[in-house]
Amino acid sequence: MSDKNALIQPDRGQKAVSLHLVDKDGLEKFLTGLSVPQRAAIAANRFTAAANDLAVIPDGDGWAAVLGVANAAALSTWCMAKLAEKLPAGTYRRVGGEPGPAVLGWILGQYSFDRYLSEPEEEGPRILLSGEPATIDAFTAEAEAVMLVRDLVNTPAEDMGPGQLEAEAEALHKAYRAEIRVTRGDMLEREFPMVHAVGRAAGRSHAPRLIELEWGDPSHPRVAIVGKGVCFDSGGLDVKPSAGMLLMKKDMGGAAHALALARLVMAANLPVRLHVLIPAVENAISGNSFRPGDVLRSRAGISVEIGNTDAEGRLILGDALTRAGEGADGTRPELVIDFATLTGAARVAVGPDLPALFARDDATAEALLAAGRAADDPCWRLPLHEGYREYLKSEVADINNAGSSGFAGASTAALFLDRFLPADIDWAHFDTFAWRPAARPGRPKGGEALGLRAAWHMLRGRYA
């Protein structure tokens, strides 16, 4: 993979291939400014200025590229991503304006996951020049965070177990001088019993753990970020069919989002006291697997009847959210955000592109939705409807981990999590897919950050 830090460089007048971005309203004016050979090249390419239409035209002794965009006056994040995928290695400059937010798509259009290829394609970088140097670092940091999510999610479970998630947290600890605590073994069973119960069947090689990072000035507002780290989900004794397991390496996508968001917060030195929590497990099958009908105790003291061992993510998040709500240094968090690949019901409701957002506070929800719209990382709010709590009733315990009806699966899962945080703490929950089933410009098939940049822009707007 190319050095992404080098893909956007300040424009100092260096030699570069010209890039023309043209929308349908501006096509006629653009054509009038071209030479006869250039217009002939446009015609030969059947260029209509539809989004992602691409034409190559002669330009002096060299050539230039023309790309169709939806709106040349207001570029989107992804409008230049196809150029970054298709053009040959070289240096490029937009004619008639700056690339703006398209810088992010340009970088992400050159992402590839080639860790397991014996002969990966070696392509030189496509460098884009920008006359807005102040924005280069910000967009590069966001791109690196997205690529971190993609890399972690794309890595198979054998190489991305609880220990590897701990190693990623260790890297943040060292890079940003954060404090790190890892709870495992007997102490995990005592302090985070649901995390232990879900992960114990994986054995010593993929032993469960609760990973915590703390960073920042304790006098700053306390913010907790929690990520579901199920590194592989067999379904447990309620075993998934083989087709249902094919993508379960991505079930730690919530943890990947949490780590990436934490890195953005730390790198920007946002004035918060950050608390990151990742319950890391593998939901495996063995003689000591937790069972349907078992009643688990939790860190919060809430007893949980197991209606389905494949609803394990909410169990480990319950313990982690309880820990997040306790705070430290006498201070509880004023905001908790969690990310989880939690329910198929959310995908049925909003599809693979939109993370389902749940929030207690309307203002927080709207801030996240607005940040997502502005950053081309859209989310969709679903309800924490009080009437659905009855679906989680148990006859033998305080709550059941699986809904008693086939309705509102994403909402009932969110309501389960809601039980484990004090009611007066501002909380937002992203039920994200963390995967892209079909490629789009700048967004290859595979692991994907969905909701990450919405959360980051909201946090930056709230605390910067």
TrEMBL record:
SUPFAM superfamilies: Zn-dependent exopeptidases (SSF53187). InterPro entries: Leucine_aapep/pepB (IPR011356), Macro_dom-like (IPR043472), Peptidase_M17_C (IPR000819), Peptidase_M17_N_1 (IPR048816). One of its GO terms (cellular component) is cytoplasm. Residues 308-315 form the Cytosol aminopeptidase domain. Transmembrane segments: none annotated. The keyword Hydrolase applies. Keywords: Aminopeptidase, Hydrolase, Manganese, Protease. Gene3D superfamilies: Leucine Aminopeptidase, subunit E, domain 1, Zn peptidases. GO terms for biological process: proteolysis. One of its GO terms (molecular function) is manganese ion binding. Belongs to the peptidase M17 family. This is Leucyl aminopeptidase family protein. It comes from Novosphingobium silvae.
